[in-house]
Design brief:
With 423 residues, this protein is α/β, with parallel strands linked by helices. It has a domain of 205 residues: Rossmann fold (3-Layer(aba) Sandwich), CATH 3.40.50. Helices cover 26% and strands 23% of the residues. It contains 8 helices and 18 strands. The strands form 3 sheets. It has an 8-stranded mixed β-sheet, sandwiched between helices. The chain has a 5-stranded antiparallel β-sheet with strand order 1-18-15-12-11, with no helix packed on it. Strands 10-13-14-16-17 form a 5-stranded mixed β-sheet, with no helix packed on it. Strand 2 and strand 3 form a beta hairpin. Helix 2 crosses helix 4 and helix 2 packs parallel to helix 8. It is globular.
């Protein structure tokens, strides 16, 4: 059972370093840190693309699709596909072994799961449903029983339905910092080995699992297509980060423990307000079932067809990011430098035409990750940070960046092909 007066304090480890300070001048990052090696000459993106494809050794032999103006959109998309395929091939055996064992270890935490498959879908188009069990703050045997129950609770029309076992038995078993990395690994394994579409990953949870949905959905919003919370308590979690993630609330009207019913209704009303103020965001569904208590007699199963209508918005035109107590360095197309993510930090990023605006606590070194789904990379972009002057920036699609991005995140649909850095 959840404790609304207690909050976790763990912080996920960031990935890369940049200098401290607040935002100022805009510049282009010619090559991501993980791709830069001392003593190696930097190859301009158009030539590097040709080398990656094994096509040529000099500029005159760059294939026509790259062109004199740099790497084309089609060529960049091909580079994404090839980098993704190469990493999948290199890691397939290891990832397949984890899926076969139904056990993943990250750091000192291990997560097991139960699994069922439904329907048929072509390779690369399968959906994934992650369903978190209740319990928490109880003996392992109680949480084990809740885990066994969760695998039988829902049945999507199509997809791989997974009920993970929380690595711990604490009250906050689904929103400690290690959960984020374990879920990311699970998703990437399913994409690489079982043909799951990363645009069709869904999150749900009941009771203490619902607590986890409140917390994980906003901080991992760019990993999911939709999320549903059943009979959980949000504790300190905020709604702002749900701007691009369809979110459903299911609660029994008589579920009064920890004022879950009252808070669910209040959060539903808040989502109504957010949607009214930002009609392009905050899609949501709220069901408060009259006469129901903590157990909703499976009425909440209506969440599955509702969620299945959605696919992930990988490159939304507007991002609202508020850091939780477990922080992250990237959300959608905004990436922070190492050590600059702090609890409560708020950034709003918007694209209108070729204009990009960042407002809020934007650190120096923030990376604006770009792809043609977001802006036309054959034209300059104009970047404005807070009250600073607009800066026009010429960007180039960069296969070096693509390789580094896939190396850091096995997600072809979310892979950037160009980047601008706030200096």
């Amino acid at each position: 059972m959840s404790d609304p007066n207690h909050c976790a304090t763990e912080t996920a480890k960031p990935l890369r370093g940049k200098p401290e300070g607040r935002a100022g001048r805009i510049g282009i990052d010619p090559a991501p840190p993980v791709a830069s090696v001392a003593g190696v000459r930097v190859i301009r993106p158009s030539l590097l693309f040709a080398v990656l494809l094994g096509c040529c050794e000099n500029r005159a032999e760059v294939p026509a699709e790259a062109g004199d103006g740099g790497v084309t959109r089609a060529a960049a998309e091909q580079a994404v596909a090839e980098a993704f395929a190469a990493r999948v091939e290199a890691e397939r055996e290891e990832r397949a072994a984890e899926l076969e064992a139904r056990e993943i270890t990250v750091g000192d935490q291990t997560m097991k799961w139960l699994e069922r498959s439904f329907g048929d879908a072509p390779e690369g188009e399968r959906s994934l449903w992650i369903s978190m069990h209740g319990g928490g703050g109880a003996p392992a045997a109680v949480n084990d029983q809740q885990w066994q129950n969760q695998i039988q609770l829902y049945a999507p029309e199509e997809g791989i339905y997974v009920a993970p076992r929380a690595p711990t038995d604490t009250w906050n078993l689904w929103h400690q910092a290690h959960i984020d990395a374990l879920f990311v690994r699970l998703i990437e394994n399913m994409v690489a080995v079982h043909g799951v579409d990363p645009e069709k990953v869904y999150l749900m949870g009941y009771s203490a699992g619902g607590d986890g949905v409140w917390q994980l959905a906003p901080r991992l919003a760019d990993r999911f297509a939709a999320a549903s919370m059943m009979a959980g308590h949000p504790n300190e979690a905020q709604l702002d980060g749900l701007r691009n993630l369809p979110f459903a609330i299911f609660m029994g009207a008589n579920d009064a423990a920890f004022e879950r019913n009252k808070i669910a209704a209040e959060r539903g009303a808040k989502l109504d307000e957010l949607r009214a103020a930002d009609p392009g965001g905050y899609p949501h569904l709220v069901r408060i079932y009259e006469g129901m208590g903590h157990w909703m007699n499976r009425k909440d199963a209506e969440s599955l067809p509702w969620m299945a209508k959605f696919t992930r918005r990988s490159w939304p035109k507007r991002v609202v990011w508020v850091q939780d107590d477990v922080t992250h360095d990237r959300l959608y197309w905004i990436e922070l430098p190492e050590g600059q993510a702090t609890k409560g930090q708020r950034i709003v990023a918007e694209v209108e035409g070729q204009g990009i605006t960042l407002t809020g606590d934007v650190p120096v070194g923030t990376r604006i990750l770009l792809r043609d789904e977001l802006v036309d990379l054959d034209r300059p972009v104009t970047v404005t940070v807070n009250d600073g002057p607009p800066r026009e920036v010429e960007v180039e699609r960069d296969p070096d960046l693509i390789k580094a991005a896939i190396a850091g995140r096995l997600d072809a649909a979310a892979c950037p092909t160009a980047v601008v850095v706030v200096e």
